[in-house]
Amino acid sequence: MAANAWLPKDTGYFSKKANSNTYNDTIVNNHRTFKNRRNIPSFEIRGVNLGSMFIVEPWMASTEWADMGCGSALSEFDCVSALGQAQANSVWATHWSSWITQADIQEMRSYGLNTIRIPVGYWIFEDLVYTDSEHFPQGGLAYLEQLCGWATNAGMYIIIDLHGAPGAQVAQQPFTGQYTPTAGFYVDYQYQRAYWFLGNMTELIFNGQHPAYAGVGMLEIVNEPIPNDSLISAYYPNALAAIRAVEAQYNVPAAQQLSIQMMDARWGAGNPNAALPDLTLAAYDDHRYVKYEAAPPTTQAGYLQTSCADQLGGNRPLVVGEWSISPATANQNDPDLANSAANVPFYTAWWSAQVQAYEMQDGWVFWSWKTDLDDYRWDYQLAVRTGVIPADVQDAYSFDCGPYRR
After folding, report:
1. Annotated catalytic, 126?
2. Mean predicted confidence (pLDDT) in 279-290
C-alpha cells in the first residue's frame, strides 16, 4: 500500500476539547486512508525539530560533539575527514542510536505534539557522495527509517527536510553539514544530485517496501536557501517534477501525493511560486527567530508585544518550521531575560504568544527538541521538564495576548 500525504488537522487526528488533545487510535492505525489535505484543515501542526540528529550542529550539541571526538571541527564533513571513515561510522552509529530514541517520541506525544521535522543531508543516500572528495558518516539511512517507524506508529506527522544540500546552500554554516567558503549548491550538477535525493526519498515513501515512512506527508526541498535566480526558475520546478515523476511511477492518486515545502517569499530568497506549474500541494516554511530581527526587542514587554501582534502573512499554507524562545544575543543574559527560574513566567508567556501567532497560520515546529546547552530557550524537552512550557500544548491559550497587542 502507498502512504498518503496528510496534515494532522485534515483527519480528525485530534478532537478539540478544552485544554486537551485527544489521541485517536483509529486514525493512527489507518494512516493510508486519510482524506486529502488540499483544503486548509481545522487543526494545526504542533511539532519539534530533531536538530542535530542527522546533521550535528556543534553550537547546540557541544558535549555530544566532544564525546564523538570531533573537538574543534566545524562541521560533520570536517570531523569525518579528521577521524577517518571507519572511526566516524562507529561514533555516528552511537550518536544515532542515542540522540533521539523511541522514548523521546513517546514523550513528544504525551505533550500533545503531533509533528516532527527531520533535518537530513543529501549524504544519507551514500550513492550521492563523491567519496574521493566528500567526507560524511555512513549508515544513517537505517536509523532514519527506524525513527520514522517510531513516529508513524505513534501517529505523528513527519516532515523530511533537505537541510544539507549538495555543495552547501549557505556558506560557512554547519547546518549544511560542511563549512564551505562559498555556497556551491546553485549549479546544475548539484541540483541534479538534489533531484536524485528527492526522487529516492519519494520512492522509499511509496514503493510499499518501507511502511515506516507511512507518516511522511511533506518533503522540504531545501532549507534556508540564499537568493539565486536559478533556485526559482530551475530548481523548484524540477524538484517538484522529480517528486511527482516517482509518484506517477507508483500510481499515487493526486489526493495522496506529498506536499512540497519551500521557504516562503518572506524568507528573502525569491517568490517560490514564480515558475511552479502547479501549486495544488505546495506548502511554505518561514523561520521566525525574533532574536535575529534587525532591531529585536530588549525587554519582556517588547517580546510579548512583537509576538502577540505577529501576523506573518506571506504564502499559504504556511508552517513556521523553526522558532525558539531565545532573545537577542546581546541581551540574553540581562537580568529580566536570563535563563533563570525568576524569568520562567515570562518565557511561558512568550512561548504561548508565539504558539497563538503561528497557529493563525498552519502551525509550527519548535527548534529544537533537545540540545546540550542547558538552556530551556532552545530545548523543548528541557523547557517542559522544568515547567517553562506546559506539558499540555493547549495551555498556550491560557495566556491573554490582548493587553500586548499594539
Report:
1. no
2. 95
